[in-house]
Every structure is written in structure tokens, then in C-alpha cells.
Please model this.
Amino acid sequence: MGDPGRTRYGKTHTALGLGLLEGREGNQFVPDGLATRAEAAVALLRLWKVLQ
Model:
């Protein structure tokens, strides 16, 4: 089946490449951290624009 960590990394890398996700202040990227409502809203809006 493969390593779940590699699959998650690949999907995260894809989302970064599409511009759906960005780092936080101080050039930090926290993939296992909690997203704020604003961060989630921005990611969903960017996804919606990519899908159109």
C-alpha cells in the first residue's frame, strides 16, 4: 500500500504547487497544525478558483 507519510507529503506538495497553501508568518509551514477559520477559508477559495 505504501507509506502514508509519503502519500501525505505528496498531496501537500501538490497543494503547495497549485498555490492552495502557503506558509505562515516567519516562513513557517505546519502541515500537522490546526488551521484557523481564515486559513481554511482562503484555501477553499483558492481551490474553488483552480477548479473553475
Summary: The helical segments are 4-17, 37-51.
